[in-house]
Amino acid sequence: MDASEFRRRGKEMIDYVADYLENIRERQPFPDVTPGYLRNLIPDHAPEEGEKYEEVFKDIERVIMPGVTHWHSPQFHAYFPTANSYPGIVADILSDAIGCIGFTWASSPACTELEVVMMDWLGKMLNLPEQFLSSSGGPGGGVIQSTASEATLVALLSARTMFIRKHIGPGDDPHRENAVMTKFVAYCSDQAHSSVERAGLIGGVPMRMLETDSKGALRGETLQLAIQRDKAAGLIPFFVCATLGTTPSCAFDNVLEVGKYAMSFNFNPHKWLKVNFDCSAMWVKDSRLLSDAFEVDPLYLKHENQGKMPDYRHWHIPLGRRFRSLKLWFVLRLYGIKGLQESIRKDVMLAHEFEAYIKSDERFEIFGEVVMGLVCFRLKGSNELNEKLLKLINDDRRIHIVPSKVKDTYFLRLAICASRTTSQDVRLAWNVTREITNGLMSSLKQ
Ligand SMILES: Cc1ncc(COP(=O)(O)O)c(C=O)c1O
């Protein structure tokens, strides 16, 4: 493909993408394919000679689309949202074209410098304490990780190093490091995302999943008791991960009790902030703790301006990193803070519309509280009844949702996911739910 064909094909692809997104409502949100469907649709080896572009393009609808779960369909209500916007896509095209690997400032200065400023913009939007911002002039600042899972792991590993250093002096027997580490213990709530438990597994430390209150929140007293118990047993508590918006039910840990003095903070603009995956924003109060844990310095990565700007390779696990701050820059400038607030408020309002439908039918109950864009609901009755309802709703294929369970109560979760979702789509989701419930109830009476 030469430049003139790229111009033509690129424009065609932009048209295809715009048509896909603008007409996505017409596609079934969850596909009908069965595992292994794709292998039969394409050859089992790469072509010897290059093919014609038309042949490849044709195969998007033949091979790919039948197996796509359409996360941006207004009838997709599963998991949590993943963001998608034209400004985000356009910026990613530019990022792909620049195609730099921004591991140090010198490897592509704009890649590092835009990220530093964008993380400050975003931190100010969230009203984060000054110490998290690089503009404060201190050792704090932000970095874009790929995922929240990575951010949690990075925080845990750097806390682990900090505590090893605290307990072992420079002249100590290195074997003592392992002995000290066997005493480390970390905490999160029993509602925390599986990635937090995994960070413990990868970091080789036990992660205590502490019991939450009736609203699914971790409370200070529970944490304090666990810490006291572990200290009394000779263990070394070194890490707590609090969650604001748990995956099962969007519960908020009580951070005023648990984490008044948090050293890091992470959230995913790639979920609700119109920045396409991947863009997981992480801030730390002291980036030296990251460098302490992750710095290795081969000659080929050194440069003469070291220390004047962050070298992000010390802030995360991979060496390579894409120019992801471009999509933040485009999105923040083109929507503005007000535009982003409006879109989040619209989703929250739609969630309350669905909540009102659920509350209008006495066969149903809301599980927990509707906060943000998630509605957790169930039929009054057994878990088995609700499992049947979920299966029937998803088998029907008009909408797609996933279930969850908190303290042995099984419920259905409806998240407002796509930016194109309207009141009409919420009404459709309710009509499907009610119609299927009517059928289920009458089949049970027979
Ligand atoms: C509360 C919470 N934490 C962490 C994650 C993991 O996110 P990621 O896919 O960015 O690792 C999720 C994913 O939905 C989540 O809901």
UniProtKB/TrEMBL annotation:
Enzyme Commission number(s) from the entry: 4.1.1.28
Pfam family, one: Pyridoxal_deC
Cofactor: pyridoxal 5'-phosphate
One record GO biological process: serotonin biosynthetic process
Keywords per UniProt: Catecholamine biosynthesis, Decarboxylase, Lyase, Pyridoxal phosphate
Enzyme class, broadest EC rank: lyase
Family matches, as PROSITE patterns: DDC_GAD_HDC_YDC
Quaternary organization: Homodimer.
Protein name stated in the entry: Aromatic-L-amino-acid decarboxylase
Organism: Pinctada imbricata
